[in-house]
Amino acid sequence: QVQLVESGGGLVQAGDSRRLSCAASGGTFSSRAMGWFRQSPGKEREFVAGIIDSTGNTAYADSVKGRFTIYRVNADNTVYVQMNSLKPEDTAIYYCAATSNWTTFENFRLIATQPGSYDYWGQGTQVTVSS
Questions:
Q1: For a tag on the chain, would you pick the N or C end, based on fewer CB atoms within 10 A?
Q2: What are phi and psi of 124, to 5 degrees?
Q3: Which residues, 6 or more positions from 2, have their beta carbon under 8 angstroms from its beta carbon?
Q4: pLDDT value at position 56?
Q5: What is the pLDDT of residue 4?
Q6: Alpha helices of 1-131 — where are they, by DSSP H?
Q7: Would you say 81 and 36 are in contact if contact means Cβ atoms under 8 Å apart?
């Protein structure tokens, strides 16, 4: 059983940076594609970023492209998202997710944005961006 634990959330001001971490345990971390999603009140859970390995194969939502960077350190079983130039609309609960349901990066890009593509989820960490 894979367990995912997010950390790093908090209250920040617009324009600030924040790094979220997701520590994984159980299973083979390096073989799983990882994703970050977020959900704000009254909205559906939305894809933020995804990564399949440590070689730069990443995918981003248009709303965060150029501001957020996802990366992973397989030796530490951890995936991160570095969030820069935060905006009030980035306020949400951020969730980490893992999936083994991918074959190639092209395949992952097709499925990465769908929450149903992921097998495991963390409990989430709140990020609040004040204006």
A1: N
A2: 95, 155
A3: 24, 25, 26, 27, 32, 98, 119, 120
A4: 66
A5: 98
A6: 105-111
A7: yes
d(CA 14, CA 47): 21
Cα separation values, 105 from 32, 101, 115, Å: 12, 11, 17
Average pLDDT along the chain: 94
How many residues are listed for the chain in this entry?
131
For residue 38, the Cα-to-chain-centroid distance in whole angstroms is 8
Q: Please tell me the predicted confidence (pLDDT) of residue 102.
A: 86
**How far from 113 is each of 47, 108, 130, CA to CA, in Å?**
5, 9, 27
Is residue 7 within 8 Å of 77, Cβ to Cβ? Answer: no
